[in-house]
Design goal:
Blueprint lengths: L16 H10 L1 E7 L4 E3 L3 E3 L4 E5 L7 H15 L7 E6 L3 H10 L2 E8 L7 E2 L12 E6 L9 H11 E8 L10 E2 L6 H8 L6 E2 L4 H7 L3 E6 L9 H4 L6 E6 L1
Parallel strand pairs: 5-6, 5-8, 6-7, 8-9
Antiparallel strand pairs: 1-2, 3-4, 9-13, 10-11, 12-13
């Protein structure tokens, strides 16, 4: 099987240690709170082509989706809907959440994959994973599938390597329409206009859970209001994230 296009994950701005420390100190406060680094600040940093304000934690680099995922896992684990611990597969690992997942949820070992990233422990194609069936207790694969032309094969591979009774967080950017994809769109500028980012190959819609179900998963969508106390929403700054998608095998 031919490798898919390179998975490119948009990351927060990279600062040298001294500048990062200065920014963190300058933004120190209590207006906003990051559940990843468990610190408060008076503002988050902007990011994205749409210049989202209060998006990136200046301390750990967590995006809105990372903060919401952390809260969601805590909440659902407390309700007994998620069982943490065991072997974790993290696809295209994001540093801001990777360490927290590994340490706070008692995952050992934590295996990460990517085609090119030096941050991953294994170089692997998501459409042809080098792991036996039923290898992992949890899979985290966030904002990756929208980069992969053959996303259905990638979903099937994630399902294959998950153990019976395991769960996963498989998030993608979603619109309120049906999923749209067009393989003839290859120009980066046109992809950004149509799909929201130059290296995306589709824009998922409300039928996204149906694709996951087609791979065998049991799927549940959780509104952020069901995971976060309404009074805490402003301090977490997760306005751009609407739903969290969890799957079970």
């Amino acid at each position: 099987m031919q490798p898919v296009e390179r998975i490119v994950i948009v990351k927060p701005p990279v600062f040298n240690a001294g500048l990062k420390a200065i920014r963190t100190l300058w933004l120190r406060g209590r207006k906003l709170y990051c559940p990843i680094c468990e610190k408060g600040c008076r503002a988050f940093l902007p990011t994205g082509t749409d210049r989202r304000l209060n998006a990136v934690c200046p301390g750990c680099g967590a995006f809105e989706r990372h903060r919401l995922l952390r809260i969601a896992i805590q909440k659902l684990a407390h309700k007994g809907l998620l069982k943490t611990g065991g072997r974790l597969l993290h696809v295209a690992p994001e540093a801001s959440i990777a360490n927290k997942l590994a340490t706070a949820a008692d995952y050992a070992p934590c295996i990460s994959i990517d085609l090119n990233s030096p941050e991953a422990s294994v170089s692997a194609d998501l459409t042809c994973l080098p792991f036996p069936d039923n290898s992992f207790d949890t899979v985290v694969c966030n904002h990756v599938l929208e980069h992969i032309p053959d996303d259905r094969t990638a979903m099937a591979e994630l399902y294959r390597v998950m153990k019976p009774g395991s769960w996963g967080s498989i998030q993608v950017p979603m619109s309120d329409k049906e999923t749209f994809e067009d393989a003839t769109i290859t120009d980066p500028a046109e992809r950004e206009r149509v799909f929201g980012q130059w290296d995306h190959v589709r824009l998922y819609g409300k039928d996204y859970p149906d694709r996951l179900s087609g791979a065998g998963f049991r799927v549940r969508l959780f509104e952020k209001e069901a995971l976060v106390d309404p009074g805490d929403l402003p301090s977490l700054s997760i306005d751009c994230e609407q739903e969290v998608v969890f799957v079970w095998k």
